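To: structure subgroup
Subject: Chain for Friday's discussion

All,

I'm putting the inputs and outputs inline so they're searchable in the archive.
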Amino acid sequence: MQRNLLLGALFIVLSEFLLASMSAAVKVLAETMPEAMLVFFRNLFGLAVLMPLVLRNGWASLKTTVPHLHFMRAAVGVAAMYCFFYTIAHMALAEALLFKLTAPFFIPLIALLWLSETIPNSAKLAIVVGFIGVAFILQPDTGGIQLVAIAGLAGAFLAGLAKVTIRRMSRTEPAVRIVFWFGAFATLISAVPLLWAWQTPEPRALLWLLGMGLCATTAQLLLTRAYALAPAGQIGPFTYVSVVFGALYGWLFWDEYLDTPTFIGMLLVVLAGILTTRGGSRAPATRSTKET
């Protein structure tokens, strides 16, 4: 059991390092490439990685009675991805990753309104602490909340909605079917803007796109394996190490520094995230999937 816990934590840390690396690749690519291209290639690579698993299980395993929920989850997930990539391009990398990690604060509220699930007291406390931390990061008394911050929060809300949709579908849909239809619908949806936003990638950009896709899909596989080895309540807090990796990337390559209010806000959000994870064992489990 102790070995599985250590392996699970290691896989989480490796997964978050790869997600931070993917985010750094997005930041590099966003300097010369439209956001629509980045979102499309992210989804295309994810779908390509899934195909061997689909072929092994057979096409019959993909038959679904809730295609509207699969489409909704994909549409919401793609919208969240647009918000997240926009935030990465226009905000310090550590802050952008932190906004993404506020999604768990929205999940109990959405589940309450949609699925009539109760909110544990620990989750209520986490939500309050988390949004106090977000207020420190936004610093609204210094001249107003920036559009990029609103996009970050919108992306977190949409990611939370996507995860609650997964929870709703998990009553009848196996994990492979949920992941495949997300990849298929998300690729089709994100291909539409290419009709007016296509830009032929240069060879160097293709390498970055390939690295972005490999980092994202490998991170998802590592995350899934981690939660298969150990309980989320014990290894979930390690997901916040992505903020550390993001801060290091930002400092090394973009000379990004975090001021004191932002640092305090980050600590509060991380504390709230740990409270959410610790209290999550009392709530219905959500299948482990990533939107990015």
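Points worth raising on Friday:
The first helix runs from residue 2 to 29.
The chain has a mean pLDDT of 80.

D.
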